[in-house]
Fold this sequence. Notes:
alpha/beta, single chain, ten-stranded mixed sheet, seven-stranded parallel sheet
Amino acid sequence: MYFSLRHVPQHAVLKASIEKFPAPIFKPNSSKKHNQKEDIMSINITAINGRNPLFDYEAFESSFNQLVSGTALDAQVFAFNNFPVPVSSEANIDLLLVLAVNPEKGNFYRFKKKDRYVYLHNLVIPVKFVSHLKTAPVTISGLQLLHDAEVLDYSTEISSLRFNLTNYLVHKCGFQKDQLYVQPLIFIQNPHEQVLDNYLVAPQLDFFALNRYFLESTSDIFISYKEWKTDAGYAALPHQLHALAEQAIRDSEIGFLTRRKTERLGRQLTNEKTLFEELNKNLIIIHGKAGTGKSSELLTLMMKCTGNGGNALFLSYNKLLIFDIARTIKAHQNIQCLERGGSMPGEAAVLTLHSFFYRLARSLGVLHVLSAARLEKLQHHLKERMRLIYNFTEPLLRQQSGWVSLKQALRSTTTLDTGAKEAGLDFIRFLERSEDFKPAHFNRLSKEYYERKVVLLSQVEASKTFIADYYDVLENTLLAISEPEVYFEQHGIAHKHSLLLWALHLQEHQVVRNEGGVKITLEGFMEQVSRILAGHQRNRTVFVDEAQDCHRFEKDILLSLYGANNLVVANGGKDQLVRHTELCNWEVSQNKKIAFKKYYTRNRSFRIKKTVADFCNFVAAQFNIDFHLEPMDAPDDGELLIDFRQQNPDTAVKEVFNHLALKGAVNGCTRYESLLVLLESNSQRATDQGELQERPAVMVSEHGNIRETLHRRKGGWKYMPGLETYKDRFWDGTIDDKSQQAVPGPHESRIIYYESCRGLESWSVACFALDKFFNQKLEEPDAALFLAEDLFLATDVEKRRQMFAATWVLMALTRVIDTLYIQLNDRESVFGKVVAAYLALDPAHVRELGPHLVKQ
């Protein structure tokens, strides 16, 4: 079956046909017999989606026949080139190999491992090619591959390919999960042959090399899909792969928005010269407002980087955005691969920043050494801050100060730093919630608060250190990178051999053995850290989205690891600051100025039409946010629908969804592009699912304070039961366990929480309980600290809280292109009044909904 990606009017599609190779080069020896028959058969490869230039089909076919056809005259080989669906954001499937031997008696292929024969039944092997390491030899050191003092670590790509391809085959193609085992392979083209589990190093990927991999790997079972071991299953294999190919066609379909993105990428690749010239010379900062093309500029430079043979890594905070970016990159690469007649020269990977930092910290062993010492350090911090907070609050409480004035005094004092203020506010909220609080109880309650925090702290296990104590993990990761000698001394690394042996893959020459035991040498530690960091660097240029929200440790780690010249960041400024309360300054790192080039996008949006842009500007102005967004050029102005109805029945929700989905469809959008549904996470559950199940969770803030949070099992969306007939049209991102979900496909609209919408876009967006979302953000602890360092805003806490909430709301509102639907619960709420005031202006293309949608 052959796929080709080509442009046709209004659509870009994958066309399918079958390509069979001509007669094979090698004919098996005619003296071989099979079941006493003289029938001699040559086994050919079925090529799907054309030929991969890094894979010699004839050589593989010839070698397969030479090794297999002596005992197996009936076998099948399928080679699916450039699997077109972005099942993983971390690695493309350059080649999907499927091998299967007919299970009938007397037809087999086996090889001897140790003292017994092992049979090859069938295999599903997603292959990633690494073709840029052809010079220096690749060697094995322990359980690691080394190339020119660089650790070749593709473990995350391997895990991602295995999990996500399995998910795709099960959820999209009808495979049985309990029968399926995918075996990813990283093929490294190099003359020095080596084998490690999931890694094959050889001059070319033929069956001789693959057979050697089977012999030397630790695996003894070569069955990827049990059903194919049966006669009926084997006979159905071509039909299943045909169905897989047809599903890949559907899931690779791109609509108007994706096509517009790829076309804009193509134009920018052709026209953009200034930024290209700065790439890999200086830190590039792309500054602009929401929807003005910052991410598009990042993608353009990323495609330029990979097109020139470099490797690129795109980092973002939003996991759902990762899917979206990966989909756009894959669509663009499909086009480029077709135009180039082969694969992309460089690698393109997309990760969340949290995934990236977790893997980096784990690979350096930071997560293994922090727990015990960190618990002691945090307890000391808690004791010192409690002393300061006690001395500050106790006299005020004796003076009968109210809670509001007490909080105000704490926020405005100059005697406490930001971390102590954060801890103090938490302590005051604890006192405020105490049912029997009296000034006379202050000592007892202070002790209870301290003891509670100590107990909570003890619950932070080493395995959960990354999540619970994220900022200290970052600080120590930075120290291990920039000052490994200091890190080595501070944490007593010399005496942690047993703890770090497997974490760092330490070698014998990196330790010393004596009567006192085994110690890690400083030189050995630094050598291994250097190797690990080189493996992460991997000739990468890194592209960071929403960089204004990075913590300074995150920024400094990226700059230390990759160098400022290999970083490109998109900065939305304080108007788009939602993750931290302080704006990240990318022009300075560790008290040193960074050489950078700053590029400003225009205020004109690439995304938002006039009607919604005008509304966003009105909202921003009400909360003193400097926005001034100019709408995109479009033949029409779009539409804004306001819904204050208190009880929105299922039929009304269906009517709204049908209206919004249709508007996208008539404009050539897929369902994925047509409708994005945003929910407020605390009030949108079904009323018949009982009380929310809550369990305490513990985390440590960026200022080192212990925070207690509640993990809330939210249940399903209250309108979801009424949408059962549309169930296959929605991807539900609100469920608690997303681990088993497949990547959303082009025929699924997304239902997600507001907090997950950053960076996404859709032709139409439906916002439910938007006023409650505003109120939720208004009450968050971070709201009081938002822009606290701003001299003009420092004393006006309420204004900063409202700015914080409005910034989150504007993030949601700017996801839309054409039609925005907003449902609110209370016209008299803070945000409800803002919307009502806008309606009173009687703006064009804005409607308040009554019993039914007004027909167009």
